[in-house]
Write a structure and sequence with these properties.
Blueprint: H1 2-12, E1 18-21, E2 35-38, H2 45-55, E3 59-62, H3 70-75, H4 77-97, E4 102-106, H5 135-155, E5 159-164, E6 166-168, H6 181-195, E7 199-203, E8 209-210, E9 212-214, H7 215-228, H8 231-234, E10 238-240, E11 246-247, H9 248-259, E12 264-268, E13 277-278, H10 283-288, H11 296-308
Parallel strand pairs: 1-2, 3-4, 4-5, 5-10, 6-9, 7-12, 8-13
Antiparallel strand pairs: 8-11
Helix pairs in contact: 1-7, 2-4, 4-5, 6-9, 9-11
Length: 310
Amino acid sequence: MVGAAIIRLLLSAGYSNIISNCFSKNPETGTGPGVTFIKLDLTRQSEVESFFEKERPEYVFLAAAKVGGILANSTYKADFIYRNIMIASNIIHAAYLFGAKRLLNLGSSCIYPKFAPQPMKEEALLTGTLEPTNEPYAIAKIAAIKLCRYYNEQYGTDFISAMPTNLYGLHDNFDLSNSHALPAMIRKFHEAKLAMSKNVQLWGSGTPFREFLYVDDLAAACFFLMNNCSHKEIGECVNVGTGTDLTIRALAEMIQEIVGFSGDIVWDSSKPDGTPKKLLDISRIRALGWEPKTTLEEGIKKTYEWYLGI
């Protein structure tokens, strides 16, 4: 999803020498002149280094990751920490070895402590205990941040780290076994509407607060940071979000209305809620000159329209 959004933006901006990995599935966007897709297992150091030695990329967007919601994180703990650490280590090291001018490492807001002061500032990193349901993923993402920092300090590289909030948008994952909350809700409400069901069952109590960023806004932030900001300006990492949040219950009601499902919502409080609140402080990136543009309602409507066309 993130890689597709970045490619769309780069192509629209006139870039014509883009190389992207598509190891786990075939590309769904950006095919044609200007972009080349390859199949690399990014957990294999030899494959990654051979690619960097041959292609010598100047600017690297590190968007590859194994991702998922609470269920996937809880089920595949070893996969989440291993694959994400290996991907980050191999790409960051190869970017250093073969002289990339700048690398942008994408992390996640789950790097911050479960009970970090809200909204969460970048300085909250490693000041408390992580949320248990996504600790393996968070640890891998923290390791990537530290890799970028220490390569900058030891080798003089210019590797930067951006921490986006919860993402959604075109090319999202709607598989109910490993998707995030927002796309899962879109699918559940849509299928319930088609089946004329009386209700839709959702995980948790609906009381946690979450922040959501449309993926094209993240792509714009990445493009802005890559073109305008060095690691010295950004610091160890920079948050990317909207600066506003809402309850999961309010999100569900918004999606229900957009999809047009007229039944009831049933909350399964036996399922975990995760972190009670996870709002990013985006004052640092705002001060650098970037602002989000897409409202949540507008973004969900675009995402649902794309889902209907799958």
